[in-house]
Target: Protein ARV
Amino acid sequence: MSTGGQNGLRPGKGNTEGVTEGKGKTDEVTMTSNTDASASCQYRCIECNQEAKELYRDYNHGVLKITICKSCQKPVDKYIEYDPVIILINAILCKAQAYRHILFNTKINMHGKLCVFCLLCEAYLRWWQLQDSSRSIDPDDFIRYAKEWDFYRMFAIASLEQTAYFIGIFAFLWVERPIRAKEKLNFTLLLKALLLSSYGKLLLIPAVIWEHDYTPLCLRLIKVFVLTSNFQAIRVTLNINRKLAFLAILSGLLVESTMVYFFQRMEWAVGSDCAIYKSQDF
Model:
């Protein structure tokens, strides 16, 4: 989730409006032309969410001038000059500007790898809970866990539950779409945003490694943080109000809970995070 400086930027063709002249002459501006006219407005202003043709102008001698948004008269993307750590902190604080910078103005293709790693973290937590609840001195049990078949089962179940969660969100937004018929939903970008905003699941591993009396509370807080990040990602990606984003999250949780109930009835798993929380004693 961390970006900064010029990393990940996709320089495109833009105009000179809103750009203040820096050291050197304007005819010394170096630009990378974009032959695709349809992609001329591929960026977004992080303040007002308006489309922008460029993020900055690159003058000679390494002088950069950030483009000014025509709509709000603020820098289109101030984060291109920020350190990646600062951007990550702003993303953790769920600032809409940081999410717009990451989703619209950078090239991040790690959402697939991040999703797999988060699922591995969640599968490990469930496998750890299953092992802890079935602790025995019988060496056969340790051999059975060493085979890791239970871990693979937890990974498959966690994947199905997350898929159900996303399906619930997409289904709600698809049904709600006629209300906003003028806007076209980009489900590919939304999926990428949801995967990237689920990075909070990485905290599951430290919560298990440094086990203490407050581990159940930590797991609940991690769950709330992930849902909050998903909520903000939906708002930023689709530019919708808080009510619709909240209802989309609830729809996803409803479908996910249905899947969890099905697995519990089939006795296939320990359960999702909610089930794990209920099995812990505060």
Remarks:
- Confidence is low (pLDDT under 50) at residues 2-39, 274-282.
- The longest helix spans residues 149-176.
